[in-house]
Amino acid sequence: MSRRSAREAAFKALFQIDIGNSTTEQALRYNLHGLKLTEGEARFSREIVEGTHRHQPELDRVIQKYLVHWELQRLCAVDRNLLRLALFEILHRPDIPDAVAINESLELAKKYGSSDDAVAFVNGLLDRVVAENSPRHE
After folding, report:
1. Are 77 and 19 in contact (CB under 8 A)?
2. How far is CA 99 from CA 26, 102, 119, 124, in A?
3. N or C, which end of the chain is more exposed by having fewer CB within 10 Å?
4. pLDDT tens digits, 49-92
5. Which of 27, 117, 16 is nearest to 70 (CA)?
6. What is the model's pTM?
7. Nearest to 52 by CA among 9, 20, 97, 4
8. Is residue 13 pLDDT above 60, yes or no?
9. pLDDT at residue 103 above 50?
10. Dihedral of the alpha carbons of 107, 112, 118, 119, in degrees to the nearest 10
11. Residue 136 above 60 pLDDT?
C-alpha cells in the first residue's frame, strides 16, 4: 500500500469522529481494518488522526481565520476534515513537506469533495495559510 492509503484511512477516521461522534480508537480500528498497510503506514495513519484530533481547536481557529464570510461549522464535513488533516501536517509535521500535504489533500478532495469547487477551495485556503505562516515553503 502507501502513505496515500494510510492518509486516506486517516481522513475517513477523522470524518467518522466528526460526524459519527466515534472515539479515535473506534474510528481508527474501523478504517484500518482490512487494509494491507505496513506497520509503519498504520502508525502514520494513527499519528495523524491522533495529532489532528488533539490539535483540532487550534486547526479550527486557523481555518476560521481564512474563511471569508463563512463559518467553520457551515463547511461540509468532508472539506472541514480535509483542511484539518492538511493543516495538521503543515503546522505540526516538519517531516512532511507543505507541498506534499497540500497535494495529498487535493487528491482526497478530488475523490471525496463536496462539490466541483472543493479542490479549488481547499487549495486556495491551504495556499494562503502556507504563504502567510510557514517558514518552510517547498
Report:
1. yes
2. 30, 5, 15, 13
3. C
4. 999 999 999 999 999 999 988 888 888 899 999 999 999 999 99
5. 117
6. 0.91
7. 9
8. yes
9. yes
10. 10
11. no
The pLDDT, as a whole number, for residue 131 is: 92
State the Cα–Cα distance between residues 46 and 111, nearest whole angstrom.
21
- Residue 104: helix, strand or coil by DSSP? helix
Contact, 109 vs 15, CB < 8 A?
no
Q: What are 92's three cell numbers?
A: 505540526
Enumerate the domain spans of the chain. Answer: 3-133
Looking at CATH, the fold of the domain delimited by 3-133 is given as N-utilizing Substance Protein B Homolog; Chain A (1.10.940)
Our separate counts of H helices and E strands in the chain read 7, 0
Report the C-alpha dihedral over residues 6, 107, 80, 125, rounded to 10 degrees. Answer: 130
**Start-to-end Cα distance in the chain:** 25
47 pLDDT above the threshold of 60: yes
